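Reply to dn_fold:

You asked what the input looked like. This is it:
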Amino acid sequence: MSRDPERVAALFTEDGVYEAPLASVGDVFPPRMSGRAAIRDGLAAAYRRMAPPTDPVDPERTRFALHVTADPDVFIAEIDTAFASGATMSLVQIFRVRDGLIHHLRDYFAPVR
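and this is what came back:
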């Protein structure tokens, strides 16, 4: 949400992977980025192509759930983001962490509706 590629990339291990499997080749968002530098550069390029945000998130209506797994280094986040305009966006993110940083993130998201 900050659209700060440096700060987002800093959350990943040096060899981290960020995947958005539902993003197609023509989408603004790259379907796979490997390595912290590639994540930073891929996000920076995507943010430049995206329209500036004009619809702020409504934190009162936004909901999320965190799910633990049998593996202590894996958790799942379900997020239903609500915007001030009434639009919504749903995400499911699967995180694998190593040494306190994201090692692998699979980000499944539906477009804003």
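The radius of gyration is 14 Å.
Hope that clears it up.
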